[in-house]
What does this fold into?
Amino acid sequence: MRWNFRGVALLALFVFVPIQAADDKKADSGFTVDKEKKTVVIDCKIAPRKIDDPGYKEVYPLEVIATWPWAKEVGKGGQKAHETVVTFDKAVPPSAIHKALEELGLKAGTPVMGGTAKDVPQGPEVEISLEFPGPDGQPKKIPVERALVDPKTKKPMPRLKWRFTGSVMVQPDPNNPAKVYGADITGTLISIFPVTNQTVFQSHLSFADEKLIKLDTDKDLLPKEGTPCKLIIQPTGK
It folds into this structure.
């Protein structure tokens, strides 16, 4: 696993993108917020599973669901660019998705990093779905866990509980007291395991589970890398 902090100074200067009004469905916004349906829909692409670097031949197990691809500015698509199911547009930083959930009346909880099985993320529960073109060309919508499989048995991941934890704030420059939204630096939107607290959503799985559960994408189910898709986030009321 490579942690890439190049370009942090640039991100420290980042100005959060204002989110669109709930009934504003501009196609170029990168995501939409629908107060009536209580959904946030993010335009994504199926991510490559191998890092674009000839020096790295290994395909790492999945640790996250979605990352923000600042490939040129930060490195190869953020810290988890090759350990994710989807990536989403440069115009949509994780902090904008945080604000979108607040538009739906949700209040972020507290993320976890490391810890034991007793250390669980806090925050309102959400359902996360993935929609992509099916073999017949029609949209196919699945719980995002269905896109995850054990690479040996090919069995899909059981349903998980996802929490809107929000990200911790971080100080990128030790010589500058200014803090920024941590997930905008890591590029992590949804973390399967608590490998970082600089994320917007976390599942109920523990850090110990990361050592036991190895996941890959279901290539028989998902379309090819680079295919446009949609990530749908909806509060459950829990």
Observations:
- The two ends are 34 Å apart (CA to CA).
